[in-house]
Amino acid sequence: MATLVQPAGPFALGTFSAPDGEPFPGLLSDDRVLDLRAALGEPALTTRGIFERWAELLPLLHALATDGTGTWQALDGLRVHAPVEPRQIFQSGANYRQHVIDLEVAHRSPDDPRTVEEARAEIAAIMDRRAAEDLPYVFIGLPSTIAGPYDDVVLPSWAAKPDWELELAAVVAKPAYRVPVEEALEYVAGYTIANDLTDRATVFRRDMPAIGTDWLRCKNAPGFTPLGPWIVPAESIADPGDLRVTLKLNGETMQDESTKDMLFGIARLVSYISRTARLLPGDLVLTGSPAGNGIHWGRLLRDGDVMEGSITGLGVQRTRCVEEKA
């Protein structure tokens, strides 16, 4: 397990297990974990179940974190799993201004008559217009992509250009449908880290270009969304619109950007999604990835690579890439 980076606030929530034990919802405070099934007297409790009763249980979680009683376990003796099992994953694409500009330039046709500077200026104007017209770009991911924050990432044999996309993820606190922007943050329980892996070779349908993007193929392999290590309550994050998102590949910094570069913040994304879909407790809203992906650097993921992702106040996840065995 990676070295503990203390999350913001008095506590965080996660899913843990002792050696040979079953996963349990845990309260992390300092470097200790409290099994919330025993502490709350609910043997069947899950982390998602906590979010289904978020308003009721949040004061109790505060009390447990400051009380100090109960049977606490050392974190370094536990396995850390993905902190929650969502029913739905909503993913925001093209949400970081510089990231989109870099991607568009990287995917330019060799026959494009524009200079790089002209292309960048044109794409920047499009981004500014999208922001002004309030048009986020959101698609849906599969819960089966979720993996733990320290699990190995298996690179499928068919994925010719696997890439990283570290991003801030918001966790939904209560059902949200047709929520105004002004109230949207009231529906967010907390925040965590997601690495939304993408196979760049299969993003676009080459057989039928008119169909456009193929999100099933390029993003939904098992384990393609390492999540966590834990969820920090929203009240402990002063401004989710001003957090540092950093990804290191084999120790070298590849992504290092503030969430200030997002075109659409958390409230606008939650509100926009809720115009169409009903968000449920424990669901994830991934907010997009900043500049610095592998396609930009001309260096995609391969067997043995180690990714270390961090976001201000949310801890660090560390995953190793493993080539799929035939």
Q: Briefly, what is this?
A:
This protein is α+β, with helices and mostly antiparallel strands and 326 residues long. It is 21% helix and 28% strand.
Explained architecture:
With 326 residues, the protein is α+β, with helices and mostly antiparallel strands. The chain has two domains: 12-81, no CATH class; 89-323, Fumarylacetoacetase-like, C-terminal domain (Fumarylacetoacetate hydrolase, domain 2, Alpha-Beta Complex). The chain has helices at residues 36-39, 47-52, 54-67, 97-106, 116-133, 215-219, 266-274, 294-297, and strands at 12-17, 24-29, 32-35, 72-74, 79-81, 89-93, 137-141, 146-147, 153-155, 162-163, 166-172, 188-195, 198-199, 225-226, 232-233, 244-249, 252-258, 284-286, 306-311, 315-323. The chain has a six-stranded mixed β-sheet. Helix 4 packs across helix 5 (116-133). The mean pLDDT is 93.
Spatial sequence of strands, sheet with the most strands:
7-6-18-11-12-15
The run of helices and strands is EEEHHHEEEHHEEEEEEEHEEEEHEHEE
Mean pLDDT: 93
User: Any idea of the CATH topology of the largest domain?
Assistant: Fumarylacetoacetate hydrolase, domain 2
List the SSEs and their pairings:
Layout: E1 12-17, E2 24-29, E3 32-35, H1 36-39, H2 47-52, H3 54-67, E4 72-74, E5 79-81, E6 89-93, H4 97-106, H5 116-133, E7 137-141, E8 146-147, E9 153-155, E10 162-163, E11 166-172, E12 188-195, E13 198-199, H6 215-219, E14 225-226, E15 232-233, E16 244-249, E17 252-258, H7 266-274, E18 284-286, H8 294-297, E19 306-311, E20 315-323
Parallel strand pairs: 6-18, 8-14, 9-20
Antiparallel strand pairs: 1-2, 1-5, 2-3, 3-4, 6-7, 10-13, 11-12, 11-18, 12-15, 16-17, 16-19, 19-20
Helix pairs in contact: 4-5
